[in-house]
């Protein structure tokens, strides 16, 4: 018990006597200090006293699909800083291949009595995935915000990049360079943001179907296989659903003996870190991650403070960033 008091006191930046008063429900402690002690208790993994277990911690979960794609650490940096400014402690949960599934992270966050959860790139974006763990959050009345498009029936507030505008910008750029055979490397069939991109492309390019679309896992090797098929069918321009997929498409072109952008132009999506350092530097559609991350926190905190829930989807306009991976169509 003494060791626990010392650890919690150190984490919360208060005395052991203050921790003891909070745990025993005594008066003489400010609400801010009390919240700090309870959050420290949760972060350190200690159980709250029975009479305090019904109260939520000032702890907010941030659940990410991975950390290998630089866009997710960038989002995490914005969200965690914004949460800290609001007096909340972020709990980062990042999935890995063969690691803890998203549903288990949800259970863990519920056990820690979190105040809310922000999800980015989770199974909510896949139409054919299980969504049962999200419904548990709804049943608990827990504030939740999703970053980027997800299945409609979940009913959570969403903060998204406008996929239609992203496609219009990318396709318009390639058409201005003379490309007539433009293909797309996108995520799996059930991936909602990819579905939106296809719908936009059908409209702006006048496609009758999605014959110029190849699906891939969000990996460089998967994109290489998908882009190879497009290039072999004659595509001179490729629009990708992420920067990682775009790098895979560049690799595909080179393995086929084609140059980028001499023979094939490639456009990414995200404008994640180091895309200025690739060979060639990547033309991409930039997601406004800082604005979106701050908006996600604002919406979540409004729910936590019961200031109202925005159920509409907020769409943020992306920005085309032209670099060296696109050029005039080959003659």
TrEMBL record:
Q: Which Gene Ontology molecular-function terms are recorded?
A: DNA-binding transcription factor activity; transcription cis-regulatory region binding
The answer to whether UniProt assigns keyword DNA-binding to this entry is: yes
Is Cytoplasm included in the keywords of this UniProt record? no
Q: Which SMART domains match?
A: HTH_LACI
Q: Which UniProt keywords apply?
A: DNA-binding, Transcription, Transcription regulation
**Domain HTH lacI-type, which positions?**
1-57
Q: What is this protein called?
A: LacI family transcriptional regulator
């Amino acid at each position: 018990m003494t060791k626990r008091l010392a650890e919690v006191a150190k984490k919360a930046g208060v005395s052991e006597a203050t921790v003891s008063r909070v745990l025993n429900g005594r008066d003489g402690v400010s609400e801010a200090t009390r919240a700090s002690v309870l959050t420290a208790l949760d972060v350190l993994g200690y159980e709250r006293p029975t009479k305090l277990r019904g109260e939520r911690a000032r702890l907010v979960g941030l659940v990410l699909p991975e950390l290998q794609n630089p866009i997710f650490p960038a989002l995490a940096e914005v969200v965690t800083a914004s949460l800290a400014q609001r007096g909340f402690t972020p709990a980062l949960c990042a999935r890995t291949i063969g690691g803890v599934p998203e549903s288990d992270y949800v259970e863990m966050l519920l056990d820690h009595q979190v105040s809310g959860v922000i999800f980015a790139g989770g199974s909510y974006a896949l139409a054919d995935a299980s969504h049962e763990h999200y419904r548990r959050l709804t049943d608990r009345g827990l504030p939740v915000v999703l970053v980027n498009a997800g299945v409609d029936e979940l009913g959570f507030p969403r903060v998204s990049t406008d996929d239609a505008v992203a496609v219009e910008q990318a396709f318009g750029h390639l058409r201005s360079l003379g490309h007539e055979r433009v293909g797309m490397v996108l995520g799996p069939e059930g991936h909602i943001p990819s579905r939106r991109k296809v719908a936009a492309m059908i409209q702006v390019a006048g496609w009758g179907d999605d014959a110029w679309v190849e699906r891939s896992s969000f990996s460089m090797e998967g994109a290489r296989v998908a882009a190879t098929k497009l290039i072999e069918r004659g595509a001179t321009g490729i629009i990708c659903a992420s920067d990682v997929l775009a790098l895979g498409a560049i690799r595909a072109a080179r393995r086929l003996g084609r140059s980028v952008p001499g023979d094939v132009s490639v456009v990414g999506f995200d404008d994640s870190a180091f895309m200025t350092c690739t060979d060639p530097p990547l033309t991409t559609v930039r997601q406004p991650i800082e604005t979106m991350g701050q908006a996600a926190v604002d919406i979540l905190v409004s729910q936590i403070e019961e200031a109202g829930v925005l159920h509409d989807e907020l769409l943020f306009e992306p920005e085309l960033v032209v670099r060296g991976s696109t050029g005039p169509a080959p003659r």
